[in-house]
Write a structure and sequence with these properties.
- The complex is a heterotrimer of chains A (about 375), B (about 230) and C (about 290).
- With about 375 residues, chain A is mostly helical.
- Helix content of chain A is about 65%, strand content about 0%.
- Among the domains of chain A are: about 30 residues; about 220 residues, Orthogonal Bundle (MetI-like fold), CATH 1.10.3720.
- Chain B is mainly α and about 230 residues long.
- In chain B, about 80% of the residues lie in helices and about 0% in strands.
- In chain B, helix 2 packs across helix 5, helix 3 packs across helix 5 and helix 5 packs across helix 7.
- Chain B has a single domain, classed as MetI-like fold.
- Chain C has about 290 residues and is an alpha/beta fold.
- Chain C contains 9 helices and 13 strands.
- In chain C, a hairpin with a 3-residue loop joins strand 2 and strand 3.
- In chain C, helix 2 packs across helix 8.
- Classes of the chains: A mainly alpha (about 375), B mainly alpha (about 230), C alpha/beta (about 290).
- Chains A and B meet through helix 1, helix 2, helix 5, helix 6 and helix 9 of A and helix 3, helix 4, helix 5, helix 6 and helix 7 of B.
- Chain C: It comes from Alloscardovia theropitheci.
- Chain C: Belongs to the bacterial solute-binding protein 3 family.
- Chain C: Keywords: Signal, Transport.
């Protein structure tokens, strides 16, 4: 972990003898402080003002013995993993379908898909779970809490993955699309055969992170009485009044599983980098609201080595987020000064050609070249973006 | 049909829906304050030369990133309050509110720390090298060179973390905060199950209305503040 | 590349169907052959509790007795969890044949389901720490801290009738409440005395019942609306269970060491409900029928 974090290594010089001594002293002080807090907590647990010694073996044994595992933790873990797995698989399908729908040339399909996805991303998972639970139960569906958990996970994580697909496509260098169009593929063919597959590889790390989110969110199922790991450990705890101990055990189980998944997510960008031309950085929290703010491209820009001799560095495309659709995308390039000509400024016959091949809705526009807007660095830009 | 609709409208008078959203907003606000303060402290620890602090901060982030919030909330009540007897007030409602805020805050702090770290990753190595070459100490280069740029690069993940926090504030139900939105929705569905879809839509659209401006603002600020290199 | 996507989607669809099938498979074997499906609580020690594949508690003992009387062997009973909020729906959808899940008979519920029984008259009571001397009834709760389960009406009864200055903590289950009581952050837990007795029996002598129930809850066997024949058979089974002494034995087994005795003014009850469309007075009852509650 330390090696990956370049900044931690580079923020300070290799300390000299004096610095090393200071660090050693500080280390000891910090370690003592942390240990002191731990001891205070343990003493408090050992000898609370009221109630029982929470560290006694009498309480821990029933939380750890074989019966606890076979009768409570493992069945609960099975249901937790079952819901998480069904949720993540379903959300992959949901995400792929809606991500692609949001990129299709047809504006009506895009609009409807956008409404659905944005809605699902904004509603808290717990609110969805409670609603589906009561709704399904009212309709007489058995195991309503299971389906409520799974469906809520699918809708939320699926909508996030849909956005990852879409922004993954938006983040590809435009050369990918241009090359496939030049090879004679239609707009949709280029999307399905060239761009989306690369976007999938680019979004893999974020998807695994999303798996961790889904796994953690299954614990919300205990609020709607789904008998997951958390709920089972509560029940075990109600037998011997050692609910703190059983919850601690289940917390450790959750942690271990999520930690393994997190490590995989962390290792993935390196595996995926060869298979896509887009940025693959894992994100802390995936974009979860309209416009998809993210700093992936900024990270990629920072990691791109600068050429020697003062030459202009070749930076990757900026993030397009909601501009992933082609029309907005070229416009965005223009705003970001990566493209010096706006598509609307192309000659009429080229625009007609684009319209024909790409199903683009380019409005015919009078050719009135003006000087670029004030903040533009380049003087070569001609004409303003559409008003 | 119209009678049905009138009944539905009466729900607004019968239940304090705006009040419930206000509870969630308050939870979010105070938790965000805690999370930002803790998160900045954690990121300072994480990039500091002192290895025990680095280890602590990394462990903290790993722990909370991989722990379900529901469990943390339950532990806030049964562990922190129940066993360690740390309480904020003798009045239960106030106490549980602040326990939930603390739980949300310490949980979100890990994500704030990770967001800032991802912001640090938007800074080219040359910046740190240059500040060292100028002879700046760790604190100087951290507070004057690295963190200001990191915060600008971290606007996007921080905004997303804020949105996640707002949505997570519904989990306060697990910490006995009975006045927030998901609890109120449960109660309303319990007594008016014939309007279940309408009730759900009230709350869902409430969250959409709250979250969309945050998303727009985040994107705007992220593009505006990003350091052009 | 297209192939990869197609394959991915195909695998995903397959995986989802496998997972959902796995979840469903346990449900199908109910109606076809000679089996009876009974809804109970899975999470209330002493009343209805699931531990691995075994089920314990007073409701379970009664349910088992009734099933035997109806001609079902142990292995022919299918136990199903019946959470409080879903009991009516489960009966209406015919997911279960009967429900014994601390299910009190109320007029409100009789609109949608029918009840046989009652097989126990429970009453709302308080659970306190063994060293407690100050709380001897619901009137003593002013300024005290009370724990109850989220959405339960037990706490409302106390607040409205006895002491409105009580502070209320809501937890997802009684186990959390009892843990909170253990550690001293609340002073009492309230719900039906049989449930409290189940909690107390696991507490290694640290919790006790106040033992002065202040409501009457007639626990009935929830049945499909209009199932009078079954109700007659069940009532006969319950009355037989009482007369043979098995009923008292079941109480004894499930609440031993807690000092719990069912309110003798009403117990053991005479099962006479649900045999026709007319409502029948509770036998042994001197008061009017109790309030709607858990």
């Amino acid at each position: 972990m330390k090696n990956k974090d370049m900044s931690t290594q580079l923020l300070f010089d290799e300390p000299g003898p004096k610095g090393k001594r200071i660090i050693r002293v500080m280390n000891v002080i910090a370690a003592i402080l942390i240990a002191a807090v731990a001891i205070v907590v343990l003493v408090r647990l050992y000898n609370p003002p009221q109630g029982e010694n929470q560290l006694s073996w009498q309480l821990w044994k029933p939380a750890l013995d074989l019966e606890a595992w076979t009768d409570f933790y493992l069945p609960g873990l099975g249901l937790t993993l079952g819901a998480a797995l069904a949720g993540i698989v379903g959300s992959l399908i949901f995400g792929l379908v809606f991500g692609i729908l949001r990129l299709l040339p047809n504006p009506y399909i895009r609009f409807i898909a956008a409404i659905i996805v944005e809605f699902c991303r904004a509603v808290p998972v717990l609110i969805m779970m409670v609603f589906f639970w009561r709704w399904f139960a009212g309709m007489g569906i058995q195991h309503s809490s299971y389906y409520a958990v799974v469906l809520a996970l699918i809708l939320y994580n699926g909508s996030v993955i849909a956005e990852l697909v879409r922004s993954g496509v938006g983040n590809l260098p435009k050369g990918q699309r241009e090359a496939s169009l030049a090879l004679g593929l239609t707009r949709t063919e280029s999307l399905m055969q060239v761009e989306v597959p690369q976007a999938i590889f680019a979004m893999m790390p974020a998807t695994v992170t999303q798996l961790v989110v889904a796994l953690k969110d299954t614990a919300l199922g205990s609020i709607i009485l789904y008998t997951d790991l958390l709920q089972e450990s509560r029940r075990l705890g109600s037998m011997y009044f050692n609910i703190l101990q059983t919850l601690a055990v289940s917390a450790v189980i959750y942690f271990v599983i999520c930690w393994i998944a997190s490590r995989i997510a962390e290792a993935m960008p390196a595996w995926m980098a060869n298979r896509t031309s887009g940025p693959v950085e894992e994100e802390v929290v995936p974009p979860i609201a309209v416009m998809d703010a993210t700093n992936r491209n900024q990270i990629k820009a920072a990691k791109t080595p600068r050429p020697f001799g003062g030459a202009e560095p070749v930076y990757p495309d900026h993030f397009h987020g909601s501009h992933a659709h082609h029309e907005n995308w070229t416009h965005h390039h223009y705003i970001e000064q990566q493209e010096l000509e706006h598509p609307h400024d192309y000659p009429q016959e080229i625009r007609n050609e684009i319209m024909k091949t790409m199903h683009l809705r380019v409005k015919p526009r009078g050719n009135n070249p003006q000087s670029g807007s004030g903040d533009k660095k380049s003087e070569k830009g001609s004409g303003e973006p559409q008003k | 049909m119209t009678q049905n609709f009138n009944e539905f409208l009466q729900l607004f008078q019968q239940y304090d829906i705006l009040g419930a959203f206000w509870v969630n907003i308050e939870l979010t606000f105070w938790a965000a304050v805690i999370a930002v303060v803790l998160g900045v402290i954690l990121i300072m620890m994480r990039i500091s030369p002192i290895s025990s602090l680095r280890g602590f901060a990394a462990g903290y982030c790993e722990f909370f990133k991989n722990m379900p919030l529901t469990i943390i909330m339950v532990f806030m009540v049964l562990g922190i309050f129940g066993q360690l007897k740390i309480s904020f007030s003798d009045t239960f409602t106030i106490n549980f509110f602040w326990l939930a805020v603390t739980g949300l805050g310490v949980y979100t702090a890990a994500f704030v720390c990770e967001s800032l770290r991802s912001g640090i990753n938007t800074i080219p190595v040359g910046q740190a090298e240059a500040s060292r070459a100028l002879g700046l100490s760790f604190m100087q280069s951290a507070t004057q060179i690295i963190l200001p740029q990191a915060i600008r690069g971290a606007v996007a993940p921080l905004g997303n973390t804020l949105i996640a926090l707002l949505k997570n504030s519904t989990v306060a139900a697990a910490a006995s905060v009975a006045t927030e939105t998901s609890s109120l929705m449960s109660t309303m569905i319990e007594f008016h199950s014939e309007h279940i879809i309408g009730i759900f839509l009230i709350f869902a659209i409430g969250y959409v209305i709250l979250i969309i401006p945050i998303g727009l603002l985040t994107t705007f600020l992220s593009n505006r503040l990003a350091v052009r290199r | 590349m297209k192939k990869i996507i197609t394959r991915l989607i195909a695998t995903a669809v397959a995986a989802v169907s496998v997972v959902s099938l796995a979840a469903c498979s346990s449900t199908s074997a109910t109606d076809s052959d000679h089996k009876i499906t009974i809804g109970i609580k899975f999470d209330q020690p002493g009343v209805g509790f699931k531990k691995g594949g075994t089920y314990t508690g007073f409701d379970v003992s009664v349910a088992r007795y009734i099933a035997h009387e109806l001609g079902y062997k142990d292995y022919e009973i299918v136990w199903r969890e019946a959470p409080s909020k879903q009991r009516e729906a489960m009966l209406q959808n015919r997911d279960v044949d009967m429900i014994l899940a601390s299910y009190s008979i109320t007029d409100d519920r009789k609109k949608t389901v029918d009840f046989a029984g009652p097989y126990l008259v429970a009453g709302q009571d308080l659970l306190v720490r063994s060293d407690n001397t100050t709380i001897n009834g619901p009137e003593d709760l002013d300024g005290k801290r009370l724990c109850s389960v989220t959405g339960s009406t037990s706490a409302v009864v106390i607040k409205e009738r006895y002491s409105n200055k009580v502070q209320l903590m809501e937890q997802p289950s009684y186990a959390e409440c009892a843990t909170a009581l253990f550690s001293g952050i609340v002073d009492a837990v309230t719900t039906d005395n049989i449930i409290l007795a189940g909690l107390a029996s696991n507490s290694r002598g640290r919790l006790k019942l106040v033992g002065k129930p202040f409501t009457q809850e007639y626990y009935g066997v929830g049945l499909h609306k209009g199932d009078y024949e079954l109700a007659k058979k069940i009532n006969a089974a319950i009355n037989k269970m009482v007369s043979t002494g098995d009923w008292e034995q079941a109480i004894e087994d499930n609440t031993s060491g807690t000092g719990f005795t069912p309110d003798t003014q009403y117990n053991p009850p005479f099962a006479n409900q649900g045999e026709s469309a007319q409502s029948v007075e509770f036998a042994r009852s001197t008061e009017e029928s109790s309030d709607s509650k858990n």
